[in-house]
């Protein structure tokens, strides 16, 4: 299970809404305890593609985020991006670009602006997709 604070959820939501009409993206760092993963820090990154159909994270910002994680004893738990006009599920491109089967891929659908949908996925080497439960905590 993946644990996310309401504060960090709001941070991701605001970043994704601010990025509209383009996809927004970022990284998540945290800790692991058995099968449980705790998001401790959300890194809001720039989508240098400026597209509503795909994203590329700014490499300098990515490097800074990973450096910050190491300095704070966190590990990379995964990344997130928004789908401005489609459901919260990995596209074929998302699957193709999923290189690490040990991390989570979070997708926030903003298709229905009043009811955003955040889901977490694990994508294995064969590109099979599994949903990981997210628990939003205070």
From TrEMBL:
Transmembrane segments: none annotated. It comes from the Bacteria. InterPro entries: JAB_dom_prok (IPR028090), JAMM/MPN+_dom (IPR000555), MPN (IPR037518), VirAsm_ModProt (IPR051929). The keyword tRNA-binding does not apply. PROSITE patterns: MPN. Keywords: Hydrolase, Metal-binding, Metalloprotease, Protease, Zinc. Pfam families: Prok-JAB. Residues 2-129 form the MPN domain. CDD domains: MPN_like. SUPFAM superfamilies: JAB1/MPN domain. This is MPN domain-containing protein. The lineage of its organism: Bacteria, Bacillati, Bacillota, Clostridia, Lachnospirales.
């Amino acid at each position: 299970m993946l644990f996310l604070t309401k504060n960090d959820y709001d941070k991701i939501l605001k970043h994704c809404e601010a990025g509209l009409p383009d996809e927004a993206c970022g990284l998540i760092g945290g800790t692991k305890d058995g099968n449980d993963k705790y998001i401790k820090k959300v890194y809001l990154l720039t989508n240098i593609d400026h597209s509503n159909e795909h994203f590329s994270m700014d490499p300098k910002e990515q490097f800074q985020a990973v450096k910050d994680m190491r300095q704070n004893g966190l590990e990379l738990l995964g990344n997130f991006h928004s789908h401005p006009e489609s459901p919260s599920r990995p596209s074929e491109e998302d699957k193709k670009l999923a290189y690490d089967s040990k991390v989570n891929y979070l997708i926030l659908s903003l298709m229905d602006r009043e009811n955003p949908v955040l889901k977490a996925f694990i994508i294995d080497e064969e590109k099979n997709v599994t949903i990981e439960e997210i628990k939003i905590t205070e």
